[in-house]
Amino acid sequence: MRVFNLSSGSDGNATYIETEHARILVDDGISCTETVKRLNLIGVSGEDIDAIILTHEHTDHMKGVDVFSKKFNTPIYAHNDVWKGVYPKLSKASEGNMRIFDGDFDIKDLIISPVEIPHDVKCFGFTIENGDSKVSLLTDLGHTTDKIFNSVKGSQLVYLEANHDIIMLKNCEKYPLSLRMRIAGKNGHLSNDASAEFAEKLVESGTRQLVLSHLSRENNTPELAYTYISKKLADDGIIEGTHVKIDVALTVPVRIFRLK
Ligand SMILES: [Zn+2]
Ligand SMILES: [Zn+2]
């Protein structure tokens, strides 16, 4: 399995996942043109994509989907409950490419298991398996639950939201109070603190690679998320580089993660 971050954060989210037979995108929150340009960096073209799996309706997760699907005749998969918000935002994609799931489903040699996550609209995280390889993606969640943990535990690689530093968010003058409250709320986004707490459980369950993702442009920095979470883990004896590798998914592609 190969995993490649095309973009992550407030400006758009898209993740490419590939096995011997399947090539998918989870979300496509950047323009179609930009998506293709970034896929080309690793020798993949738009026609190669078997499916786009959507987490939820927010624009930073589906900006490029409509045009991409129309241009490359790509099936779009979303949960039954997510389609209600997604459907009105699609005008170009053909109805025949709109696929509904409400439980586990396969795309070629991938098994995809959705788990509902708490956000201010219906939203899903995913565990994606191929043989012994297991990858999970969890972004846009206000808090974590035992159900989410049970779904993703044992994943070798987890994309985990580390959206904001709580103090930066509290003091953010660019955001009105209502927005700051939404982000920090139970159905908003995961803070560095909450991310660190969940990361620790993941490492104990066998996760060896964490990719901190969906960082806020205003209220976090890659350096802060990395150092804050690494330190929190170190306080409990989990050493970055020894027990787990931590990377940060940026707004631009940086590196490919490979699982055997
Ligand atoms: Zn969202
Ligand atoms: Zn988002």
Which characteristics define this entry?
single chain, 260 residues, alpha/beta, Metallo-beta-lactamase, Chain A, seven-stranded mixed sheet, 25% strand, binds zinc ion
Give an overview of the whole structure:
The protein has helices spanning 32-40, 59-62, 65-72, 80-86, 146-152, 166-170, 177-184, 192-204, 222-235; strands at residues 2-7, 14-18, 23-26, 51-53, 76-79, 98-101, 105-107, 110-116, 124-130, 133-138, 157-161, 209-213, 245-248, 256-258. The strands form 2 sheets. It has a 7-stranded mixed sheet with strand order 6-5-4-3-2-1-14. Helix 8 crosses helix 9. The radius of gyration is 17 Å and the shape is globular. The protein has one domain (2-251): 4-Layer Sandwich (Metallo-beta-lactamase, Chain A), CATH 3.60.15. The protein is an alpha/beta fold and 260 residues long. The longest helix has 14 residues, at 222-235. The chain is built from 9 helices and 14 strands. It starts with a strand and ends with a strand. 29% of the residues lie in helices and 25% in strands. One zinc ion binds at residues 13, 58, 60-61, 140, 214. Residues 13, 58, 60-61, 140, 214 line the site of one zinc ion (ZN).
